[in-house]
Amino acid sequence: MQRASRIDLPVLELRGVGARPCLDELSLRVGAGERVALLGPNGAGKTTLLRLCAGLRAPDAGTVAATPPVGYVPQDFSASLLPWLRVAANVALPLRAAPIDRREEARRVGEAAALVRLDPSLLGLFPSELSGGERQRVALARALVGRPRTLLFDEPFSALDVGARLAVRRALVRQAEAMGATLLVVTHDLDDTAELATRAVVLAGRPLRVAADLPLDG
Fold it and tell me: Which residues contact 136 (CB under 8 A, 6 or more apart)?
């Protein structure tokens, strides 16, 4: 029997998914280790699709399957941070259900912060004391700290300046490759698409349809 390659093993799959009012019988399959950029107009339903993949919304029809653990950065990243917790505790939230001690937790929080270029001096502050770009890095670090198999990013660099954007997205590609993670990212930025993705899926229409599915080579 011929062994299936990693890319043939689905870790993220939507089958005939409906979610009113924007999705109806949408199907999409992302193989293990693929990095897929979702492109399309504002308001088309890309954020709804990502929320379905993250398990934050149940579909009205069809099925959604994603290999856990899942790391998710929402478009409204500031609202996703818990204002009563300090930055380190916000980043550590995905680890709280894991059987690890506080020393290991602190080490992994530090690693995730370093990956997204978050200054360690900020870990003791509250989210309200940070800039928008710093809060976005906190959300990115939180998504990565659990070493997820599936990464879901919704405009993950929107609040970063150009230099930080370049550095962080390159670091994310290296980390995704190191973890063997699958990435699904919503973006309107073609530079982000070119650097992050191995495949681009163009969505259009209402209800949303896959208008093009393009492999990206280099």
Answer: 73, 77, 78, 156, 157, 158, 159, 160
3-state SS string for the chain:
CCCCCHHHCEEEEEEEEEECCCEEEEEEEEECCCEEEEECCCCCCHHHHHHHHCCCCCCCEEEEEECCCEEEECCCHHHHCCCCCCHHHHHHHHHCCCCCCHHHHHHHHHHHHHHCCCCHHHCCCCHHHCCHHHHHHHHHHHHHHCCCCEEEEECCCCCCCHHHHHHHHHHHHHHHHHHCCEEEEECCCHHHHHHHCCEEEEEECCCEEEEEEEECCC
* Amino acid at residue number 66: A
Residue 218 near residue 212 (C-beta atoms within 8 A): no
How would you write the pLDDT of the chain (218 residues) with one tens digit per residue? 334 344 445 589 999 999 998 899 999 999 988 999 999 998 889 999 999 999 999 999 999 999 899 999 999 999 999 999 999 999 999 998 878 899 999 999 999 999 999 999 999 999 999 999 999 999 999 999 999 999 999 999 999 999 999 999 999 999 998 888 999 999 999 999 999 999 999 999 888 899 999 999 75
